[in-house]
Records
---
Amino acid sequence: MAITRWDMSKATESEKKSSVNDDSMTLNEIVNDLAKKNPFLKTPMKRRREEKEEVSAGEKRLEWLKEKAKKAVIPTEQVSTLKPEHIFLENGPLIIHMCLECKKFNSTRTVTNLGEGKIQLPLGLCTICRSHINRQRAVKFFEHELPSIKKAYDL
Ligand SMILES: [Zn+2]
């Protein structure tokens, strides 16, 4: 399923506008435009109005995310099993997406010095973060590695 951005239509519109502006703006217009965007030259009233607009855009996005999240599934312990020999011995970099709750948890843990130039960072991961590692590995294997081999060997 394709992921659509909540502000996609707005972004494309402003992109179109800015590309038109770039072509037709003179140096004077660019300087004036920059001066207009300078927050230090704005009246407090205008600045406050713009800040409010930013806040409401953030709130709008949060509402949009909450609506989408209703259909999301929180992974079970069963699908979140991680085996160190699998995740650490793969080719390529290991990228871990960590949720805010896990980041906060790990930030309060201590770092252990293991000697030989190595330290051990805490790595507490909830089922969402662990199952995501598994999903990432599966997607990479089935949707990148295997098709690449198929192409390379003309299978
Ligand atoms: Zn997490």
---
Amino acid sequence: MDRSTKLNRKKWDSPVSARSSLRLGQSRFLLCLLVLCLAAGCGRGMTSKQPPIHIFLDMDLQPKYNAQSSNQFFYNRMTMQLPVPGTVALGELREDTALYQGKDAAGEYLATSPLEATDMLLARGAGRYGIYCAPCHRASGDGQGILYTRGGVPTTSLHEERILTMPDGELFGVITNGLGLMSSYAYPLSVEDRWAIIAYVRQLQEGQ
Ligand code: HEC
């Protein structure tokens, strides 16, 4: 027996008690870990007047102004500044009433779309129709979509006489502003996409 084992023997007395004190050490360690975990959970879900301890800042604190907040930098104390009076942002002029409103200079609905129904426009329209219109009006356009079958909501068939003879500009208005139970699709669909859908709907109507 060399010196080191002799020392060990003295310290642990017997192999059995050595094992049990090892277990004790392990469970103490686990207890500490548990307490630490619980302590780390504080701050979330607990009310306190103190700000939470922020160990990892990530990008939570940034030197920036929030929208709608007040601001000491500008005379009018608003973070969100209005455009300079009489100016128009680049690309926001929208003078072309035919393209942007589906109306002529006199304010009447255009009979036909200002965009030529090229293959590319029709393909784009078919894709957008499939995403934004087909869920309710169905791929065929008969209006027997999800709202009608599940909720009994009457959904207009795009093959109705009234829609067949509706000016393209009015269709543009329906997509842009919504109508009755149908909401506006101006937000997800750009102006060009709306005209593309109309070109596709006309093709769909002719197909039946
Ligand atoms: C969430 C379901 C839903 C979606 C999606 C939807 N519609 Fe409709 N649509 C309706 C309902 C419901 C009506 C009937 C509205 C009413 O008369 O109150 C309607 C009516 C219409 C009408 C008839 C308007 C009129 O003058 O009576 C047209 C045209 C139309 N939708 C086109 C479209 C096009 C094009 C799209 C895709 C951009 C579209 N809809 C997407 C539910 C939908």
